[in-house]
Write a structure and sequence with these properties.
heterodimer, A: mainly alpha, two-stranded antiparallel ribbon, two-stranded antiparallel sheet, B: alpha+beta, Alpha-Beta Plaits, three-stranded antiparallel beta sheet, 5 strands, about 20% helix, binds iron/sulfur cluster
Amino acid sequence: MELAFVIEKVVLVTVIFLITLGIAAYSTLAERKIAGFIQGRVGPHRAGPSGMFQPLADGGKMFFKEEIIPAESNPWLFIAGPCLALLTASIGSAVIPWGQDLVIGDRVIQLQVADINVGILYIFGIVSLGVYGIMIGGWASNNKYSLMGAIRAASQNISYEIAMGLSLIALLMVTQTLSLRGIAEQQAGFWQNGWFSWNVFCQPLGFLIFLVCSFAECNRTPFDLPESENELVAGYHTEYSGFKLGAFLFSEYINMFVASAVMSTLYFGGYNFPFMNHLGLSDNVVTILGVVFLFAKIFFFIFFFMWIRWTIPRFRYDQLMNLGWKVLIPLSIANIVLTGIWITVKDLM
Amino acid sequence: MESLSNRKKVLEQKPMTFGEKIYLPSIAKGLAITFKHIFKKRETIFYPEQERPVSENWRGLHSLKRDEQGRERCTACGLCALACPAEAITMTAAERKKGEEGLYREEKYAAVYEINMLRCIFCGLCEEACPKEAIYLDGPFLEADYLRKDFIFGKDKLVEEPLKS
Ligand code: SF4
Ligand code: SF4
């Protein structure tokens, strides 16, 4: 392995990590602003020009708060919980292709940390690991509300992972590859062979199921049962304070970012944008524009997460389970069958 | 039974139709409503810089009044304290000395007059009870503070500014 390659990757990892943190931090502000706008308020606006420094103020506050570790808890697991949540949230972005290759001189720089050929499986593994942070934290708190929140998180994630996986299988039948880069490349441009090239147009039902499941996997409203404030007193993070609480809250926003990136890549063409190959621009400009478009898509999805949060009330627990097991799983199986028929018919023609 | 007010409504609970069961149309409707609200006028009043207009008979902080010659009107009769439902007012009376006629209107005056603003419910009964028209609730809002003791307002904060001549 040559040195330039290592440097390239280290820089890329650092940049992506910083961007992730920045976006997560500013998502907290965006969330409060959007909540305010939807409710006819202005949201935080005192810290800096129209509240721009609010995330810094919040972070400072989290750092200087007293760290309380409950006497009856298991201190190691209590600390491990938020660390694991933060870790699993931030490694998810490693396989996302942020853009096409940049060419500088005769070096080709891939805008992706790791182009592994099982990218989707990796994301899937990370997502299912993510619930351990919540489970361990909730269990180690030795508090019945936290425990209930942890149990809810575990059962909710397991139930929705099935539907999510099944909806992905239908997508993979269409794309024939597990590599995220491969999937992104297949969706080049916007219009191909007489049909939209983005996967959402050949897998609309699959996308819908995937969207609902990612809300559940990120523990966002309407599926934020693990932390439902009014029944579980904040659920799994009831006993947390200071920076450990901050880590839990932060990991939720990072998850949201990664989920938005995955959705944009899988279904909305990733870094591809309409007419990208017909504008007569040089490859590097197209690559950079592609990154910009990918982030625009991601921001739209993050906004969508928040928009939903301030529109729909929380589901009841039995409704959540009914929706997961009795609606989404049968639907996604039907989607697989339909996709299979469609592919066969298309091949015969 | 017949409804007397004619406002009785009989609610029917029909089973949900398929369109209602899949939620999505109603979710889209809800999203449209909240999206419209993003562009509506904000109701926020930026308090310390802006103040909400109050009505004419609005009751704010108390002030102890002076008469036309700048003398304190209060005679420490204690009727306000007696009328107060929240037990917020206390006072100590003193006798006016020779030479203090320019300061106090009556022979007896309140040497100490304290209102505990955390107890006060701004009902205005003290204002109504006062026979000397000495106390009025015509001040601004009560501002926040850090210590409980700072909410006990003495004469330094309550009595009106002396007349300028
Ligand atoms: S306004 Fe009411 S509560 Fe307040 S001091 Fe006067 S009588 Fe007491
Ligand atoms: S304010 Fe009025 S009612 Fe109260 S002690 Fe003074 S004169 Fe009496």
